[in-house]
């Protein structure tokens, strides 16, 4: 139990649609939550946001969260943001133009040639050659088109800007948000060839520190804006995907968090760095010195919006038979291009066979996402990742009990749903780790709300459809000829294929 004299730990999450803030106690209880919406400008491959709106929304969300516990001391605050969003600002942290969001595609065509100016040994130190949608080429584009030479402008990630505003001046960037920009997570430095490729003037790129490092303190103006007391330590954060992993508590080797939201993201823990650009797998450096390998698919629950616009999904859950193979096998890719568990820029979704009706097509789609999730875990196992025990599951899809049961059946392992799964809560956990080892903060704060056990007989019935999908992906040349993935151990220790 915690009392009124114990500190709160604040996490702020800057997402695409809005900002969320959480004030949590040391036992994981949430004292206050807040949120505020954000707007985007999109078109012709562009996706921009106004950084001043981030700051305004962060202030509203934080003040709402702090209102739930008036007068409480705050031990620390940490910020997470979208991975790959970048902007240019002056030394006073006034934005120079809009921010380019993580999926802004205007520089994607430049990425291969730009990455080719950096040798393979450097990319090995970074951990992965940048993919076209990563921030590496986007930052080079900003330097070339927005940064004003001789003015002392800064190239910042979304989280750097917000943490700097809290501090009242520029702060160091964490290596998690900077990973897709070309930062070396081991040395916490910009490799010389990467800096040369980005062509940023001296001092324009932020200094780098490990996540969990104290990088400043809340200034008086930020305290007035956010309600977070002046002098509160600011802790270097991690990307929103890593923040969700922290919220799920999947920090021991072999434990994984699967985030099934608009897209499917898997992240786990390992003693060694694991990566393969062909599979879209790369590793973040954990605050405790371990590695967090994983990847993000282009598929996920977002496919339902495209495939079943306006549908009552709860009613579809009830109508669909998810315990038997659908009449069709679906690869549920809503757009063009896949990035995990394989990279195929020209991949498109497909359907093998003909669904009987809408309920059957819906069942085939949900099964297809579950099959893809299984293939992701099996690819990770092939690369040497330890995959065992229950899987922590977060994201909007956990609101569907039927889909969660299906995923457990297809994966052949128990699924655990954390009580507080949002990235803002993960940042509150990281803030608390500034006062105690990360493992202890997680053990105290992360709680499991529910657990779903697999039904082996259902998994066996669906196995043929899964294998059909795997064969088709290989026949199309997207999975590099890997026709039968390696077995992944279930919670019982039995291998499944």
TrEMBL record:
The keyword Transferase applies. It holds the Pfam family FGGY_C. GO terms for molecular function: kinase activity. CDD domains: ASKHA_NBD_FGGY_SePSK_AtXK1-like. InterPro entries: ATPase_NBD (IPR043129), Carb_kinase_FGGY (IPR000577), FGGY_C (IPR018485), FGGY_Carb_Kinase (IPR050406), FGGY_N (IPR018484). Gene3D superfamilies: 3.30.420.40. One of its GO terms (biological process) is D-xylose metabolic process. Residues 30-51 are annotated as: Disordered. Residues 312-433 form the Carbohydrate kinase FGGY C-terminal domain. Keywords: Carbohydrate metabolism, Kinase, Transferase, Xylose metabolism. Residues 8-246 form the Carbohydrate kinase FGGY N-terminal domain. SUPFAM superfamilies: Actin-like ATPase domain (SSF53067). Belongs to the FGGY kinase family. PANTHER family: SUGAR KINASE (PTHR43095), XYLULOSE KINASE (PTHR43095:SF5). This is Sugar (Pentulose or hexulose) kinase. It comes from Nocardiopsis composta.
């Amino acid at each position: 139990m915690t009392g009124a004299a114990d500190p709160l730990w604040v996490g702020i999450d800057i997402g695409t649609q809005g900002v969320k803030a959480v004030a949590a106690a040391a036992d994981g209880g949430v004292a206050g939550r807040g949120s505020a919406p954000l707007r985007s400008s999109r078109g012709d491959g562009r996706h921009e946001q106004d950084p001043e709106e981030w700051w305004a929304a962060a202030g509203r969300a934080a003040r709402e969260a702090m209102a739930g516990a008036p007068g409480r001391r705050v031990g620390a605050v940490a910020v997470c943001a979208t991975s790959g969003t970048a902007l240019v600002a002056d030394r006073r942290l006034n934005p120079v133009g809009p921010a380019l969001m993580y999926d802004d595609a205007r520089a994607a065509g430049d990425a291969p040639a730009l990455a080719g100016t950096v040798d393979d040994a450097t990319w090995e130190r970074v951990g992965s050659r940048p993919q076209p949608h990563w921030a590496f080429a986007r930052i080079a584009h900003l330097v070339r088109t927005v940064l004003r030479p001789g003015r002392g402008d800064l190239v910042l990630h979304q989280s750097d800007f917000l943490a700097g505003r809290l501090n009242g001046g520029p702060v160091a960037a964490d290596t998690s948000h900077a990973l897709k920009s070309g930062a070396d997570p081991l040395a916490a430095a910009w490799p010389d060839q990467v800096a040369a490729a980005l062509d940023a003037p001296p001092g324009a790129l932020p200094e780098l520190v490990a996540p969990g490092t104290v990088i400043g303190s809340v200034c008086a103006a930020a305290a007035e804006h956010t309600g977070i007391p002046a002098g509160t330590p600011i802790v270097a954060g991690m990307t929103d995907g890593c923040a969700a992993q922290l919220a799920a508590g999947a920090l021991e080797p072999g434990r994984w968090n699967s985030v099934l939201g608009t897209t499917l993201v898997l992240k786990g823990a390992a003693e060694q760095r694991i990566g393969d650009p062909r599979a879209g797998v790369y590793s973040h450096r954990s605050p405790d010195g371990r590695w967090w390998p994983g990847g993000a698919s282009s598929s996920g629950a977002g496919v339902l919006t495209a495939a079943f616009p306006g549908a009552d999904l709860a009613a579809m859950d009830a109508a669909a038979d998810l315990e038997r193979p659908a009449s069709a096998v679906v690869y549920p890719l809503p757009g063009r291009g896949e990035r995990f568990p394989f990279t195929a820029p020209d991949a498109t979704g497909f359907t093998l066979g003909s669904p009987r009706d809408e309920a059957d097509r819906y069942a085939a789609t949900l099964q297809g996402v579950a099959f893809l999730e299984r293939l992701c875990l099996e690819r990770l196992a092939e690369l040497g990742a330890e995959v065992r025990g229950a899987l922590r599951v977060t994201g909007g899809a956990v609101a569907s009990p039927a889909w969660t049961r299906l995923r457990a059946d297809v994966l052949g392992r128990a699924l655990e749903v954390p009580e507080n799964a949002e990235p803002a809560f993960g940042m509150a956990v990281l803030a608390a780790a500034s006062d105690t080892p990360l493992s202890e903060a997680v053990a105290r704060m992360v709680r499991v709300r529910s657990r779903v056990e697999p039904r082996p007989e259902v998994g066996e019935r669906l196995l043929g459809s899964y294998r059909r999908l795997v064969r088709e992906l290989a026949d199309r040349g997207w999975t590099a000829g890997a026709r039968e993935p390696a077995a992944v151990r279930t919670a019982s220790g039995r291998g499944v294929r």
